Amino acid sequence: MRDPDLAREATRQLTICNACRYCEGYCAVFPALELRQTFTGGDIAYLASLCHDCRACYYACMYAPPHPFAVNLPRTLAAVRTDTYRRHTWPAVLGQLHSRSTAAAVVAAGVALLVTLWAAWLAGERLFQVHTGPGAFYRVIPHWAMLVVGLGLGGYWMAVWAIAGVRFWRESTTGAMRVQARALGLAAWDVLRLRWLGGGDAGCPYPTERPSQSRRISHGLVFYGFLAAFASTTSAAIYQELLGRLPPYPVVSLPVLLGSAGGVAMIAGCLGLWQQKRHSDQAPAAAETLGSDYVFLIALGMTNVTGMLTLFLRQTPLMGVTLAVHLGTVAGLYVTAAHGKFIHAVYRVLALVRSRAEQRTGHLPLEVAPAARHHAGAIDPDGSVPPQ
Amino acid sequence: MTAQASSHVDVVVAGGGNAALCAALAARARGATVAVLERAPQHMRGGNSRHTRNLRCAHDAPHAYVTGVYTEEEFLDDLLGVTGHATNHDLARLLVRESATVPDWMAAQGVRWQPPLAGTLALHRTNLFFLGGGKALLNTYYARAERLGVWIRYETAVTDLLLDGRRLEGVRLADGTVLRARAAVIATGGFEADLGWLAEYWGPAAHNFLVRGTPYNDGAMLRLLLRCGARCAGDPREFHGVAIDARAPKYDGGIVTRVDAIPFGIVVNRLGHRFYDEGEQLWPKRYAIWGKLIAQQPDQIAFVVLDARAIRRFIPPLFPPITAPSLVELAGQLEAQFGVDRQALVRTIEEFNRAAAHNTRIVPDVLDGACTRNLDPPKSNWALPVATPPFFAFPLRPGVTFTYMGVAVDAAARVLRQDGVPFHNLYAAGEIMAGNILTRGYLAGIGMTIGTVFGRIAGTHAAAHA
Ligand SMILES: Cc1cc2nc3c(=O)[nH]c(=O)nc-3n(C[C@H](O)[C@H](O)[C@H](O)COP(=O)(O)OP(=O)(O)OC[C@H]3O[C@@H](n4cnc5c(N)ncnc54)[C@H](O)[C@@H]3O)c2cc1C
Ligand code: SF4
Ligand code: SF4
User: How large is the average pLDDT for residues A163-170?
Assistant: First the structure.
């Protein structure tokens, strides 16, 4: 970890939790914790990525501040996550953006504005004309310009994610880690149903202490909305490249149906997450992550709003402007996705894969003591029970 | 109707732990107006109960949260076994019978359980685990009590009982105000936090004890009840005590300070001598005797000594072990830090190692019979030589969980007077009356069962005075 104080503090708290284990029913962090006796930096980054910031352990903790043991896992692990995002960012200088949300917002907004102006400039006098029929969009903003944004910035985003993923995986798996197909399948299922966001059965104590499913629902809307939008783009590419049909597509067509369903879902999800975040308890929150969360929600929300506007206004003289703005917000979103909160998706998925793999195969790096799992005979009956 | 800001309620509950909240919820469910007076500030609410993990219940069939069957007869037998039959049989039977109804009642209050984890020994047959532990449980109870209009006050100690013969008229609070009530439930815990009081029975040794739970259970209400003529139940010297790390804070260190290493090593006192069979029984059946064993050693301190083969066999404790590459160096460190007799310690380990030399492997989860030969005291199971470097030691002190002496009650949880006649409308639940049932010994999870069962009984009967 870059910050030795943070590493020490995380180790201190995780050691307390490992001696306690009362929270082992809440989330994936504790079963993974219990497989270890000591924690490397990679372990801490991995455990932090298994935490989805539900706060259940904070409210349940008899050692939460002001107790002198001062255990506040959600806050500490959120800080570790930010630290991890920063360390694994390529190019390294942009890692700063993870903890400087104002700068991140400025950069994203700047890119969005530049691309918008550039697109408008390319459109020239066609910007305010009405265009309909196949290829209408490209008559305003040339196809190649859209490709530059989509493939260029989109490719950049993917590269940043891939590098981060590889670095994180290397760091958090000491020793040879075999991931079996079954573990992969289970991890995929965990991801698809947002398993841990359900907090077991009754939900997570988020945004308030009362268990609720609201965050899982909002997050699910964003997640599935995103997948639908991705499917929409893919189907549009097939229409265009394989079937030779140019956009805009009719309202009843795969790209438009998937795209608008995804757009509406993401807008609703972003609003929900925003609302919950605003009302959430700040005691277990890490101040430095909050801004980054908001920046991402704004970028994603704006992209979807402008996308929907393009659909509504595509037969009016406002189509060109909307399209240019939409292209700009997409560009801004790509930058935010690469250097903002969205990157949690990479870490989270990899951490869930790793957790499934190590729980299933019992594979553990050398310094981990399998013995700690076996001796239910050696426990304080008032206390904790080792897993398995 | 809430009792907000009134100077009169139907039922006043003194205390803010499990027994108190169960009493309050039961009384409120009967329609009584209820006030809960908790001495601790809000973040410390819940006394010792907030440090707990599970409770023991009889059940005739397995369900989602317990495995197997644990009949009422077996529960009762276990209880009679640990207390050596020195228990109030009627209350013990009542406790066991009522325990079977506890899980459903708790679930109806919104309590969530943790599913049993595969392969955990006996406890998942006998005990139910609260999801998130005792503080989560208490949070649920408090939230429900608030929703139902129970009036809750923190930092509010009860300091006096206003009695008119056998009838309680009200209670006096620390700030001098009087709260009138038709009935009261006293659920203020034991007197474990007052080491001065324990010293009356244990001598100055008590000042070396560490208190595992809340600093607020100083027994002031118990003293008051006894002064008001309540009959005493239970042995004043008896308490639930475990071996905890000597570096733990004086109060409220809770579960993480425990050291579960004893079955896998040897335990010596400051003189460097062993004093008890570390492998006598499976740990869950013996963990609660070590507090008192250590309390009887010079300066109330002991050391568990382990080698590299043993160090990973138990849950990693909070504090790091004292570590050395050789036994002589370990003994040297213990001498320097704690005044242990270095030479005696090395002799003891060598002696032990000779007596255990024939054992090459152990089976930790069962009584494996890997015992020492010709050694006094023996180690009856898991006796591997302490011989593989590096070597480790944890310093241990008695950690008091809770005291057993309390007030005598009847089957309605009414406090009995010395003449055996109950007070008319004064009830007690939890640690403060545990001595009716626990005179000595302990069954894991029974503390919370006593509080839940008698809290409910007390609350229900108290509400009848409304
Ligand atoms: C670390 C630890 C782990 C444990 N684990 C378990 C377990 O897993 N299962 C189990 O069954 N038992 C366990 N126990 C024992 C268990 O905690 C007790 O048996 C049980 O909590 C007793 O409940 P109670 O309500 O009587 O007391 P408490 O929960 O201690 O409540 C007493 C309350 O009274 C308040 N109070 C004190 N004096 C006054 C006053 N004058 N006026 C107003 N309020 C006052 C205190 O602040 C406190 O809130 C454990 C104990 C400890 C310390
Ligand atoms: S109760 Fe506290 S110390 Fe125990 S596992 Fe939960 S967060 Fe960690
Ligand atoms: S905040 Fe939630 S997800 Fe994170 S460690 Fe605590 S219980 Fe697990």
Answer: 96
